[in-house]
Amino acid sequence: MTSPQETTADHDVVVIGAGFAGLYAVHRANERGHRVLGIEAAHGPGGTWYWNRYPGARCDVESLDYSYSFDEQLQQEWRWSERYATQPEILRYIEHVADRFDLRRHYRFGERVLAASFDEASAQWTVRTDAGTVATTRHLICATGSLSAPHRPDIPGLDDFEGDVLMTANWPHEGVDLTGRRVAVIGTGSSGVQSVPLLAEQAESLVVFQRSPNFSVPAFNRSIPDDEYAEALRTYAERRAKSWASTAGSPHVGYDREALDLTPEERRAVFDEWWQRGGVLFAKAFPRQTIDPEINDLAREYAAEQVRSRVHDAQVAEDLIPNDHPIGTKRICTDSGYFETFNRDNVSLVNLRREPIETFVKWGAKTATSSYEFDTLVLATGFDALTGALTRMDVRGTDGVTMAERWADGPLTLLGLSVPGFPNLYNISGAGSPSVLANMVLTAEQHVDWVLDLIAHLDERGFRAAEAREDAAVAWTKHVDEVANGTLFTKANSWYMGANIEGKARGFIPYIGGFKTYIDHCESVRDGGYRGYVLSS
Ligand code: N01
Predict the structure, then answer these.
(1) How many domains does the chain have?
(2) Which DSSP category does 406 fall into?
(3) How far apart, in whole angstroms, are the C-alpha atoms of residue 195 and residue 179?
(4) Model pLDDT for residues 256-268, shown as the tens digit of each residue
(5) What is the CATH classification number for the domain harbouring 523?
(6) Residue 466 belongs to what domain range?
(7) Which of 99, 284, 293, 355 is deepest in the core (most CB within 10 A)?
(8) Does ligand 1 come within 6 angstroms of the Cβ of 452?
(9) What number is the average pLDDT over the span 292-316?
(10) Cα(383) to centroid of ligand 1, in Å?
């Protein structure tokens, strides 16, 4: 490997990122004989699972599904210990994959890509990192993650706070001992909901500052007994086939009868069943649950009842029940004892809608009606999702236009993969593709294989560059919009809508038409000779 400051030239493919998508891209590109370089800001592989080491971090997709499908032996030899693996276990898996396929040797770790620019004359990308590395490449695969650009809120006085400030999205690797600490948490999305029960167990006191409550369904996590695991391994091919043919990349198929055709008792039985399945799967109890407001209201009321039955204090329970969005239109959180945590004597909930934070001070925070003293603040405040990783880099395509400029009014993509004005740049599992609405490991495999097929097509026919046509990208982006507008998802102020970042364009960012439908679109573009692309020599 070359040292920093040195120019590393003439790669066929540079891959940014060493999460699930990046590692797979490096592996496949290398297998196909490309000269490939991976660049990763972290000091090791893992992506999301490298950074998000907060207590309680776990995946909300079952591990048997949230794992690579491309290698049968890998699939058969790895043993997941629980239904939903913890962050350390997922990281161990990713590290195992990196070693098993000898992928680390292709990477420059600990280097953050600051800029990438396209030279039209040579049809090359030049990529620059904060370590001074300059690499040139024909193709640039951005496996930069959907939830990888952490959002630090701009709250008055935050810099005056003299205690420790921790971010769930960048949790200290050595861990944090919160014994005897007075802790405050801001943020009640998945990261907050997962970490709060464990923070409460450790800390002397915990205050949760909640601006918007979220729906959360227990994970019903459990270890997987040997006989059940053996059966899962035996039927893995079937499980994967269902996932590839599904709307969200997992084998779970929703109840197929219309909710409104059932009696209240029958409906309740379906909700009970899907509640017991755990986590985000509850959104699938009925096929039209996130489309029809009447069905959604029934699901919401069911979830509200669950909160009321778990939380002793009636006012706290009401404060924990969302009333500002249809259930499922923000990602349902998957918890382990979140609501019950508010029954603890050392935990309190502050409803920021009633008493907003006025300012932080050196010893804590002042709200409109009260003061809170604490020595540790945990920010579980989310991400500039889906677009932030690319728009925060200085990525310049033809005519020197940056991605941030190109996407100022919202992301414009063809299939989510390509952007007009950015030839030979591919965005993996980001805006305009199923991305976070599907199983991110399978979406990464599908995207990377499709991109490498496109590169093979170019090479075989002597083309140097593939660029999305403006009209094709406009048509795809319109389709992404239209499909979302047919659902209730656009009714929520969610990060799917770009609503959590001030100044960000509003619009539904991922593609909600379904994983299998999306794959069909990609295959149709490929089979049509990459219809919608300009291929140039
Ligand atoms: O982030 P979020 P996250 N003052 O954006 C609040 C995936 N994930 O990291 O809703 C006060 O959901 C904000 O409040 P509001 C999963 O896809 C998965 O938790 O904007 N509060 C909200 O409560 C998930 O959806 C897993 O009013 C402020 C919170 O911070 C996605 O990542 C685990 C504020 C941010 O919630 C993101 O989840 C973790 C302010 N100024 C993450 N600014 C699993 O697999 C922000 N907030 C289970």
Answers:
(1) 1
(2) H
(3) 15
(4) 788 999 999 999 9
(5) 3.50.50.60
(6) 4-149+385-536
(7) 284
(8) no
(9) 98
(10) 7
